[in-house]
Amino acid sequence: MAGPAMRRQAVGVNVGGVMVGGGAPIVVQSMTNTDTADIEATVRQVMALARAGSEIVRITVDRDEAAAAVPIIRDRLAVLGHDVPLVGDFHYIGHKLLTDHPACADALAKYRINPGNVGFKAKRDTQFSTLIELALKYDKPVRIGVNWGSLDEELLTRLMDENAAAGSPLGAAAVQREAIIQSALLSAQRAEEIGLGRDKIILSTKVSDVQHLIAVYQDLAARCDYALHLGLTEAGMGTKGVVASSAALGILLQQGIGDTIRISLTPEPGGDRTTEVKVARELLQTMGFRQFVPTVAACPGCGRTTSTTFQTLAQDIEEHLSRSMPEWKERYPGVETLSVAVMGCIVNGPGESKHANIGISLPGTGETPAAPVFVDGQKVATLRGADVAEQFKLMVADYIEKKFGAGKRDAAE
Ligand code: SF4
After folding, report:
1. pTM of the predicted structure, to 2 decimals
2. Which of 43, 103, 106, 210 is deepest in the core (most CB within 10 A)?
3. What's the gap in Å between 301 CA and the centre of ligand 1?
4. Residue 118: DSSP 8-state
């Protein structure tokens, strides 16, 4: 049967009211790239990310000014009606910042700790313990986020030495993956020894190579039941980052692995940070894990349809649907399951349109200038004239009202 493997059973973690793992839907999250000390810019970007659909947003907390800004950011967002949970990203001095800024420690919904960047030698253990004790004090979950760019060097060296002394040593890449996994698992074990519950721990083991990422998460998933945060680190810019992240995460999700995802795209200078959220949502929706917005199936176009009418209509419909969603979600429960087809000619147009809730097959080059419309598999109308797009949009609105509107619900009651 077509479909993903059964979801791996992970202990659920409540991140500021959003459940991660424990059978909850896979959560979309993102990270700001503003200076957190710049309160205005950070509030603006968190709001944009939340509006785009990010259910958790991480912010950098790298110095006193940033830590001092966090509770103000939290309050401003609340006033503006955005209660999206904020995660603090800490490196090197997280123990100090959280100790010195109790309001910051309280305002955050989760702390992200990188075990490779907590400190060195003897200090590492005490600073890690302090972070966990602070999580306990403020009743916050943590993500123990290992990254191969900042892997615990002592652990890696020890595993390399042990491997070299072994009878049949593994390759360097396999040892590195083992070090990444052990860094996460040993840190989680240490956190539990200090008193943090399993329901307060999320793990991630990010690398920037697709095949290594898949291997490392498959292994990690099999060795623990902590909730897992998936992400391909440093995925890159543009289509490369989108494809690499989607390939890696898509395969893991299909295998039932992953409770929350972040797509780490490098934006173009001045580019839109919300792209990473859009990609994460598209990935979950296209694979059938979540349904956020109605689906628009549009053909790619070819030499059979030289006019741009259908491209314009497909774009128009897509924008119309996503613009209307905030209001429709309230008015039309279930509208996100709607499917619309906008097709360019008779070859696949009628067939694809029949598969959608509502679909239109526009005339290709040389075809009769008429556009049949199909509703739930049946041809219901043939549109003609220069305003076919407007007529079709009205038919979509009518369909939504009938299928998801109050009248439909009243009739069912
Ligand atoms: S439906 Fe028609 S226009 Fe669209 S890609 Fe297929 S053949 Fe080309």
Report:
1. 0.91
2. 43
3. 5
4. S
